[in-house]
Amino acid sequence: MAYETIIVEVEDHVATIKLNRPDAMNALNSQLLRELASALAEADGNDKVRCIILTGSAKAFAAGADIKEMSEKTFVEMFLSDFFGTESQAISRTRKPIIAAVAGYALGGGCELAMMCDFIIAADTAKFGQPEINLGVLAGIGGTQRLTRLVGKAKSMDMHLTGRFMDAEEAERSGLVSRVVPAKSLMDEAQATAEKIAEKSLLSTLAVKEAVNRAYETTLSEGLLFERRLFHAMFATEDQKEGMSAFLEKRSAQFRDK
Ligand code: CO8
Questions:
Q1: What are the GO BP annotations of this UniProt entry (predicted)?
Q2: Is the CB of 27 under 6 A from ligand 1?
C-alpha cells in the first residue's frame, strides 16, 4: 500500500516504519496515525516480518499531535469521532514486537506513541516530554497512564504538570528507555536488536509480549498464573524441544515457529 506520511521498508525479517512529515516535526495527524495503524497491521500479517522498528528523523521522533489539525475542533467533533481512539487502539493491538528508535523530540503524542511500542532505544539527542499543559490540555493517548507506570508518580507528575523535557540520560535512569546510544548508531543498534529478536521462535516472542503486557492489566497472582500456563503451553511446541536440545547439544537452535 502507498503511504504519504510514513515510509515502510522491510529488510531481512525487520519492518522499519519511518514517520515522515519533515515540515511539521513529524506531528501526528489523523492521516499519519491511520497509515501507521495500517502499516503495523500489514507487518503483523506479513510472515516474513518478525520484528518492527518505529522511528522518526534525527530532529524529531514526533513533536506531538498536530496542533494545526486540532486547534479549531469542538468537543462534539472530538467526542463523536473518538479522535485518535481507533488508531491508537489499533497500534496497541500489534502482536509482533515494536522497538521505538527515538532521536530528537518525542513530545506529547510523540512520547505517548514511543511508549505504545514495546521498548524504546534512545539516541543521546532524544528529548521526551508531555508539554500538553502548555496548550491548555493534557495528554490524550496514554501519557498520564503509561509514563506513570514507567517512571513512577513523582516524575510523571513533574513532567505533566510542568511540561519540562527529559533528556536521554534521565530517561534511561528513570526507566522510560531501555538504552541510550550515540545518535549516529541509533538505527544500526535498533536493526541489530530487531534481528536478534527475529532469530527467536515467534511463538515465544508473542508469548513474552502478551505476558509482559499482562503485568499492566492484572493482579500479581493472575499474572503469575497466566505466565506459568504460557510456559506450560510452550511444551506443546517443537521449538521448545529444539531450543532445549540445541542447548544440550551445544549448538545454536533452529526455530521453525512450530
Ligand atoms: N503540531 C503541528 N506542527 C508542529 C508541531 C505540532 N505538535 N510541532 C512542531 N510543529 C511545526 C511548527 O509549527 C513549525 O512549522 P512552521 O515551520 O510551518 O511554522 C515546524 O514544525 C518546526 O517547528 P519549530 O519552528 O517550532 O521548531 P523548533 O526547533 O523551534 O522547536 C519544538 C521544536 C520544541 C518541538 C517545537 O516545535 C514545539 O514545542 N512543538 C510543539 C510540542 C507540543 O506542544 N507537543 C504536544 C502537542 S499536543 C499532543 O501531542 C496531544 C496528544 C494527545 C492527542 C490525543 C487525542 C485523543
A1: fatty acid beta-oxidation
A2: yes
Q: Does residue 141 have its Cβ closer than 6 Å to ligand 1? A: yes
What is the spatial distance between Cα 40 and Cα 26, in angstroms, rounded to a whole number? 17
Q: Where are the domains of the chain?
A: 6-198, 201-249
Task: For residue 85, count other CB atoms closer than 10 A to its CB.
Answer: 13
Q: Give 236's pLDDT tier (boundaries 50, 70, 90).
A: very high
Model confidence over 162-184: pLDDT tens digits? 999 999 999 999 999 999 999 99
ipTM for the assembly:
0.98
CATH architecture assigned to 201-249:
Orthogonal Bundle (1.10)
In this structure, what DSSP letter does residue 143 have? I
Ligand 1: which residue has its CA nearest to atom 20? 24
| 6-198 placed in CATH 3.90.226.10 | yes
| pLDDT tens, residue by residue, 76-102 | 999 999 999 999 999 999 999 999 999
Choosing from 35, 87, 132, 172, the catalytic residue is 132
